[in-house]
Design brief:
Helices cover 24% and strands 45% of the residues. By secondary structure, the protein is α+β, with helices and mostly antiparallel strands. A five-stranded mixed β-sheet has the order 3-9-8-5-6, with no helix packed on it. It has a four-stranded mixed β-sheet with strand order 2-1-4-7. β1 and β2 form a beta hairpin. It is globular.
């Protein structure tokens, strides 16, 4: 009995991986870049589509480390100087999400705005 079930189970698992793959690749296509230079976000206000998984690439062009943080997005990531990191977000509800550099709160603040597609 198990000999006839196991090959079918393997095929079902393989199909699940194949069918899930397009969703993973779709997330890769939604890349947005946020640059930190002179302890400021560029752009200061980033607009992204609501309801989609977002790939956020953060590039720290300063020599010192920074800590990308957002209580609204429930994310934090230390990025050493002159390097990049990737954070995945969402799908986000429409709205405004505050972001900041926890090491330089006075100067490095911004927002991610998720807007519905028109």
């Amino acid at each position: 009995m198990f000999r006839s079930v196991l090959p079918r189970l393997g095929l079902i698992c393989a199909l699940g991986v194949i069918l899930a793959a397009p969703a993973a690749f779709a997330a890769e296509d939604n890349g947005y870049e946020l640059v930190v230079k002179d302890h400021a976000f560029q752009p200061e206000k980033m607009v992204v589509p609501a309801g989609e998984r977002i790939k956020l690439i953060i590039t720290n062009k300063d020599a010192t480390p920074m800590e990308f943080e957002s209580y609204d997005l429930d994310r934090e990531k230390i990025i050493v100087g002159n390097s990049s990191a990737t954070i995945y977000l969402g799908p986000l509800d429409a709205g405004t999400y505050k972001i900041f550099d926890d090491f330089h709160r006075a100067t490095t603040t911004g927002t991610v705005v998720a807007k519905p597609k028109q």
